């Protein structure tokens, strides 16, 4: 019964978000704050799903353009990570999203960037264009550097694109981590705690493209350690609530 009720409420919320948000995107196509608008609406669904989202250090959001590096676990990212997406931010998504009925068109109209990961040449062109947009339009870009969902397997290896783009644009990188979401089930009343923490910005000024592997490895290590810490804290908080 709970599963059916949640699915109905969630469906209504998403339909309203797409209708109202879609109209807003038509009136102001690819506006710099469209993604922030949708993110806020999606984040309101967390309590409906029985998730308590704890946000930390969101005040560290850079006042200047940056690249946010977020861990990608599952579809619940849409309702947890979205709690900290700031204004003037767009996301980088795979090109195939554009072919999803309604969602794909709104995703593009929102101002998000589509990349063809299967075509290496086109992918590099997209990342170069992204670097230009960051500088010319003062945009921040939200990227999942793992490139795919981890599904509770920890932090997967990073793709290099986000790091090349940050160096080319000369902007800092801000890691954003959500604690484990593998326990979330739609038919469970209380889905516990998910902690979203924004780490300190990591400057890329003075870093050469030849240092991308080193930079990627360093940030991956930092994020893995932080993720482990957040998972322990979230588990402790859920144990206390039982």
Automatic annotation (TrEMBL):
* Coiled-coil intervals, chain numbering: none
What sequence ranges are listed for the domain Phospholipid/glycerol acyltransferase? Answer: 66-181
Instruction: Report the EC code(s) recorded for this entry.
Output: 2.3.1.51
Query: Key word tRNA-binding present in the record?
Result: no
State the GO CC annotations: plasma membrane
List the InterPro entries.
AGP_acyltrans, Plipid/glycerol_acylTrfase
* Record keywords: Acyltransferase, Lipid biosynthesis, Lipid metabolism, Membrane, Phospholipid biosynthesis, Phospholipid metabolism, Transferase, Transmembrane, Transmembrane helix
Q: Which residues cross the membrane?
A: 7-29
Which reaction(s) does the protein catalyse, per the Swiss-Prot or TrEMBL entry?
A: a 1-acyl-sn-glycero-3-phosphate + an acyl-CoA = a 1,2-diacyl-sn-glycero-3-phosphate + CoA
> Which pathway does it serve?
Phospholipid metabolism; CDP-diacylglycerol biosynthesis; CDP-diacylglycerol from sn-glycerol 3-phosphate: step 2/3; Lipid metabolism
- CDD domains linked to this entry: LPLAT_AGPAT-like
Q: Which SUPFAM superfamilies match?
A: Glycerol-3-phosphate (1)-acyltransferase
Biological process (GO) annotations held by this record are: phosphatidic acid biosynthetic process
Q: Which GO terms describe its molecular function?
A: 1-acylglycerol-3-phosphate O-acyltransferase activity
The free-text domain note is:
The HXXXXD motif is essential for acyltransferase activity and may constitute the binding site for the phosphate moiety of the glycerol-3-phosphate.
- Name the family the entry cites: Belongs to the 1-acyl-sn-glycerol-3-phosphate acyltransferase family.
Q: Which PANTHER family match?
A: 1-ACYL-SN-GLYCEROL-3-PHOSPHATE ACYLTRANSFERASE
User: In its UniProt entry, what is this protein called?
Assistant: 1-acyl-sn-glycerol-3-phosphate acyltransferase
What species was this sequence derived from? Answer: Shewanella pneumatophori
């Amino acid at each position: 019964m709970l599963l059916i009720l949640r699915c109905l409420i969630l469906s209504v919320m998403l339909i309203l978000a797409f209708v109202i948000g879609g109209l807003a995107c038509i009136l102001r196509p690819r506006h710099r704050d469209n993604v922030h608008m949708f993110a806020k609406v999606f984040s309101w669904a967390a309590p409906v799903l029985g998730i308590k989202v704890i946000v930390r250090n969101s005040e560290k959001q850079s006042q200047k353009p940056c690249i946010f590096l977020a861990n990608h676990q599952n579809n619940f990212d849409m309702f947890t990570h979205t709690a900290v997406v700031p204004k003037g931010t767009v996301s980088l998504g795979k090109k195939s999203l554009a072919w999803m009925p309604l969602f794909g068109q709104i995703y593009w109209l929102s101002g998000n960037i589509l990349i063809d990961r299967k075509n290496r040449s086109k992918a590099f062109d997209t990342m170069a264009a992204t670097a230009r947009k960051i500088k010319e339009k003062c945009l921040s870009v939200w990227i999942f550097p793992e490139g795919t969902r981890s599904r509770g397997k920890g932090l997967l290896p990073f793709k290099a694109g986000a790091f090349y783009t940050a160096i080319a644009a000369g902007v800092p990188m801000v890691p954003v981590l959500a604690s484990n979401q593998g326990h979330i089930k739609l038919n469970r009343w209380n889905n516990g705690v998910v902690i979203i923490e924004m780490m300190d910005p990591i400057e890329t000024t003075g870093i050469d493209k030849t240092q991308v592997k080193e930079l990627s490895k360093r940030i991956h290590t930092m994020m893995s350690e932080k993720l482990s810490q957040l998972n322990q804290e979230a588990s402790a908080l859920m144990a206390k609530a039982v």
